[in-house]
Structures are given as C-alpha cells and as structure tokens.
Amino acid sequence: MTYDMVIRGGTVVTAADVARCDVAVRDGRIAALGEDLAGAVADGGRVVDAAGKLVLPGGIDSHCHIEQLSASGFMTADDFWSATVSAAFGGTTTVIPFAAQHRGQSLRTVVEEYHDRAGPKAVIDYAFHLIISDATPQVLGQELPGLIRDGYTSFKVYMTYELLRLDDYSLLNVLALARREGAMVMVHAENHEMIQWLTDRLLEAGNYQAKFHAISHAALAEGEATGRVISLSELMDVPILVVHVSTERAAVAIREARDRGLRVYGETCPQYFFLTAEDLDLHGAEGTKFCCSPPPRDEADHEAMWRGVVNDTFQVVSSDHAPYRFDSSGKLAHGPDPDFKHVANGIPGIEVRLPLLFSEGVGTGRIDLQRFVELSSTNAARLYGLEDRKGSIKVGADADLAIWDPDLEVTISIDMLHDNMDYTPYEGRRVKGWPVFVTSRGRVVVEDGELKVERGSGEFLPCELPRLAEPLGQSVREMDPGRNFGARLMPDREAS
Ligand code: URP
Ligand code: ZN
Ligand code: ZN
C-alpha cells in the first residue's frame, strides 16, 4: 500500500499509549502506524519530519459559541470562518458549537440556520449541540427525536438566564426524553433565583461594576444547582454532563455522584484555572472583559479544578469560547460604563485552550500526555458520539493530527491570535508548547504559521449516540429503589 503522507519519527500520543512511530495517511484517514513507513509514500505524496515533536490527535473543542445570537441579542464576534481558523492554529481540528433555540423557534429551523452559517465558512469539521430553551411538547415529542436520529445527539439546557432557563419540571421532561432516546444532556448549573436576588440587591445599592458580577454569581448558586440537577438526573437514571464547572463545591458534588455510580460527567475550562474574580476588578470597564458565567473564582477553586482533572471529576476541558469585543458591538453595548447585568457574558479562548492546558498541566507534571489527550480530544469524541472518526490516532480514524513542538515558548497576545477579537484575557501570559503543524482529514490546515485550506472546506459531522458504560451504581439503586422512581416509570430505550 502507498500513502499520501507519512509523519515520520514523532512521539505519537493517544489516551492509551505513548510510542515513537510513523503515522501514515491515505484518503484522509490514518492508514498505518509503525516504523519506517516513509518509503511507501506515493508519488506526489509527502513526508513530514516530526523528530523531537509530539504527534497528538487534533483537539475537539466541545463547548464553544460560534456565530451564535445570544438570548439578549448579542452576536458573537467570531463567525465560522474566524473561529475555526483560530481553533486550528491552536491545535483543534473539530468544534462542537451550539445551534441555539430561542423561545418560540422551531429547532429544525434553528439547525438549518446554523448549517447555513457554518457550511460556507468552516475550515475544520464541526458537529452541533442543540440549546433547548423552549421545551414544549412539540419540541420534545416531535422535533427533538427526529433531530437526534439525524445526528444532533446532545443538547444544553440552562438553569439560569431569564430567557433560556428551564424550571425543574421542564428539566425532568428533557431528561426523560434524553433517557428514552439515549442522548446526552449538558447542563449550565447555576441557581437563577439566588443570582437574581443578589443582582437586584447589588444594583439597588449602586454596586454596578463588573466585579459585582462575580459576587452575584455566587459559588453557592453553582453548587446548589449542580447538586439539584444531579438529583434530577438520578431520579431519571440518565447521564448528564455539567458544563463549565468553576467551584470546588460543584466539583465535589460531581465526584461524589460518580463515586455513587451515577453517570454524571463534568467539564471545566481554562478560565477556571487561570483567571480570578479579581480580574473583574480592573479599572474602568476593563473588568467586563472577564465577565462570564460562571465567573472566574479564586486560587482555592483553581486547585480544585486541577484536582478534578487529575482525579477524573472532569472528562473534558473545553474553551467555552464566547467572544464579545470590548466595544459597542459587545461588552460595551450598553455604554462605556455598563452595569454588570447588561454586559454580554462570555470570554474568548478557542485558540489558547490547548496551549494553556499543555503548558500548565503537562509542563508542570500535573497531568501526563495521555491525560492531556483524553481531556482535550478523546473523551469529547466518546461523550458526543464521534469516537469512530475523531479523538484518537488509530487506523481507520480521520487523519486529524496536531504536531506539537513541546519546547516552543510563546507569549500570548491578541496580535498573534486568529480570532476576531480585540482582546485576550491571557495577554502577556507565557506558555511552553504549541502546535506547529495541523491536519484535518489528511489535509494540511496549518503549516509554518500559515493557513493552508479554503473557506468552507470543513465538513458537518453527524453524531452517533454516546456509548457510555453502564453505571456502577446498580447496587446503590437496589438498596434504595425509591431513588430511581422516575426512571422506573419510564420505558427503557431498548424496550420502547
Ligand atoms: O458566560 C458564558 N459562559 N457565556 C456563554 C454562554 C454559556 O452559558 O456558556
Ligand atoms: Zn453555560
Ligand atoms: Zn458556553
């Protein structure tokens, strides 16, 4: 057999192994792993020297907001062109952004709109999660089951944000549907009333600056909602994934739930390792650059997040890239000195997600290379039904690869990034390790600091249902049958 490309002499890392070998690519897929494959390169093919470098699966960013209109009417600064270019330069080869339903909208129409946005612009492959803000019988009974079968097998629900949140009854309806169909539910867990009450009191007292955003989104609000949604998922006996976890309290709740055998998964993001609530207390409106929800916390929570990536509380580290510029199109849409309630929530980070995690995780010895690959790529593929094609370097998988120079030192600055933002929260931070050569389905996407692919060359990825192991907690449920009362009323997927 001949190959289109052989990546020679690198250290190849998967979630399971680290090995020095060549990677051969043919027809966009990984065709062979082994020694001395370069001799079998076809005429016109190429050999890429990876000696001294790491060859990793391209990253999967399974939580990012791209060309998404927020419920308050803010459009993200990045479209599918700038976001996917930026992702690729940071070693990410698959993104799973959201097709976001606003109340009253048909989910099917929303999905079509997002395809229209992504198709002509994306340069790497993409799937979609859905955001369900209107859990009507029509949406849950008709639209969602059809969409799940068409490859939209995960959806996010919110416990806060006035225009997005679902009450517990609606959450149970969504969880019941997910159980029946085998889909994955992602949950934004913050207690809405706590946040709303604190916000009202703070604003009444004239405390409007960005730093009060962090106070209003109290750690307790996240902890309470995380515990509550775990209980709801336990009632339904259905997997959930709690997204963008920022506090020790929430992390411990997730860890304990899984220790009890529940399929409760967790995601955290670089902002919860690197930024603090003090960043919101910069002069003028500068602090708005760091307003996201949940907000950055403190150093004790940073340590809890690191413990969580080490002890498998968290299965994925995503960017939660939600880019709003520091101008009247974004953070300052309500004037140069806005109150925190009217600041677009979200921060950028799609390009720096992997270098930050690599530098501060692998570089300090907190996690090893295999765990880095798991957190940044492999687990997302498993959780969201992409594992046959993405997230690993194995024969038959798509040749989505990132060659990393582990010694390359980079000072992050907005000028070197490829998104459409006018700031980065990580300005001036030094990292060691950066991807220098990136492929997607065997196409070279980034080489020598240049983009090598055309607009719209990324492809849509229909997702399969996640294949998750059975929960370990059968005995717990047998000891306390009432705990799964809701689930026992539901027909099993197999049986229905
Ligand atoms: O503040 C954030 N994270 N904005 C993006 C929307 C979300 O809830 O993930
Ligand atoms: Zn969220
Ligand atoms: Zn988000």
Question: Strand percentage, roughly?
Answer: 15-25%
Distance between the ends = 46 Å
Number of strands: 18
Mean pLDDT, all residues: 94
Give the overall shape.
globular
Main sheet characteristics: 9 strands, mixed
Q: Which molecules other than protein and nucleic acid are bound?
A: N-(aminocarbonyl)-beta-alanine, zinc ion
Summed up, the helix count is 14
Contiguous uncertain segments of 5+ residues: 470-486
The first-level CATH class name of the largest domain: Alpha Beta
CATH architecture of the largest domain: Alpha-Beta Barrel
CATH level-3 fold name of the largest domain: TIM Barrel
Q: What is the CATH superfamily label of the largest domain?
A: Metal-dependent hydrolases
Instruction: Indicate the radius of gyration in whole angstroms.
Output: 22 Å
Attribute tags:
nine-stranded parallel beta sheet; nine-stranded mixed beta sheet; 2 domains; binds N-(aminocarbonyl)-beta-alanine; alpha/beta; TIM Barrel; binds zinc ion; Urease, subunit C, domain 1; 14 helices; 496 residues
Description:
The chain is α/β, with parallel strands linked by helices and 496 residues long. The chain folds into 2 domains: 3-56 and 390-451, Urease, subunit C, domain 1; 58-383, Metal-dependent hydrolases (TIM Barrel, Alpha-Beta Barrel), CATH 3.20.20.140. It is 30% helix and 22% strand. It has helices at residues 80-89, 107-118, 137-149, 168-181, 192-204, 211-216, 219-236, 248-259, 271-274, 299-310, 353-362, 369-383, 474-479, 485-489, and strands spanning 3-13, 18-26, 29-34, 41-49, 54-57, 59-64, 92-100, 125-126, 129-131, 154-158, 184-188, 240-242, 264-268, 316-317, 401-411, 430-440, 443-447, 450-451. The strands form 2 sheets. Strands 1, 2, 3, 4, 5, 15, 16, 17 and 18 form a 9-stranded mixed β-sheet that branches. A hairpin with a 2-residue loop joins strand 2 (18-26) and strand 3 (29-34). Helix 3 (137-149) packs parallel to helix 4 (168-181), helix 7 packs parallel to helix 8 (248-259) and helix 8 runs parallel beside helix 10. The longest helix has 18 residues, at 219-236. It is globular and about 70 Å long. Bound molecules: N-(aminocarbonyl)-beta-alanine and zinc ion (2 copies).
